[in-house]
TrEMBL record:
This is Nucleotide sugar transporter SLC35D2 isoform X4. Keywords: Membrane, Sugar transport, Transmembrane, Transmembrane helix, Transport. It comes from Equus przewalskii (Przewalski's horse). Coiled coil: none annotated. The keyword Transferase does not apply.
Length: 291
């Protein structure tokens, strides 16, 4: 085989390798990172919305968007990360991701504030949970589609998502009285509350980033299932730690079915990732490349 042919084969092999599946370690670690961030954020938000009785899930979401914008913008100014500058084509490239993003955000925070750890039936709370599941699944699918490195990349998706939705969400919170309730809240001078509020904003950024990473390295279904396992895990902790769990056969069996299904899917996904890849068919290899 000629040197030119060997060089061409090498380039083709390199392209194929670069276009291959993501590393198994990255798939597992990104899913664990997403699950951990999501789990910690729910615990902090639960403390803010139920223990301190902070009245505005929407303002909490706005704080998380603001933290995302500031962290990414400062990182770009210091050339730590890169994403494209704004142009008029970016809203078209992103749509409908910003709407799904804010819907996922607000429905998740609202469900956390409406449902207590006793898991007693709350129609409004379960509607928010159902909406959050829909937004989470749709957000995962569209995030994976919009993360083309040649376009916005993962940092651009995060930054412009937050930029486009923070002002409409602020206007909505003002029109619904949410902003007024937040400004009149009597715990703003409480240092412990402020620390947890700022921690929630930072964890909100980490959750958005980990969601993008998990969607990049795994399927959207994997991201959704990890989120579901996290929700059930929080419920289990509420049974043991909260002290206000009221046992019910129906919701206890339902929780265990949900957890078993999520763990089974995770096990099957990981098993398929660690199976040895089949070797190329020897008959399809040209004679001059054998031996």
């Amino acid at each position: 085989m000629s040197a030119g042919g060997q060089a061409g084969a090498g380039v083709a092999g390199g392209d194929a390798a670069s276009a291959g599946p993501p590393p198994r370690g990255a798939q597992l670690l990104s899913a664990l990172f997403y699950g951990t961030c999501s789990f910690l954020l729910v615990l902090v938000n639960k403390a803010l919305l139920t223990t301190y009785r902070f009245p505005s899930p929407m303002i909490l979401g706005i704080g998380q968007m603001a933290a995302t914008i500031m962290i990414l913008y400062v990182s770009k100014l210091n050339k730590i990360i890169h994403f494209p500058d704004f142009d008029k084509k970016i809203p078209v490239k992103l749509f409908p991701l910003p709407l799904l993003y804010v819907g996922n955000h607000i429905s998740g925070l609202s469900s956390t504030s409406k449902l207590s750890s006793d898991l007693a039936f709350n129609l409004e709370g379960y509607i928010f949970v159902f909406l959050n599941d829909i937004f989470t699944a749709a957000n995962g699918v569209y995030t994976k589609q919009k993360m083309d490195p040649k376009e916005l990349g993962k940092y651009g998706v995060l930054f412009y998502n937050a930029c486009f939705m923070i002002v409409p969400t602020l206007v909505l919170s003002a029109s619904t009285g949410d902003l007024r309730q937040a400004t009149e809240f009597n715990q703003w001078k409480n240092v412990l509350f402020l620390i947890q509020f700022l921690l929630s904003c930072f964890l909100g950024f980490l959750l958005m980033y980990s969601t993008v990473l998990c969607s990049h390295y795994n399927s959207p279904l994997t991201t959704a299932v990890v989120g579901a396992i996290k929700n059930v895990s929080v419920a289990y902790i509420g049974m043991l730690v909260g002290g206000d769990y009221i046992f019910s056969v129906l919701n206890f069996v339902g929780l265990n079915i949900c957890m078993a299904g999520g763990l089974r899917y995770s096990f099957l996904t990981l098993s398929s990732q660690f199976k040895p890849k089949p070797l190329a068919d020897e008959e399809s290899i040209p004679p001059d490349l054998k031996g």
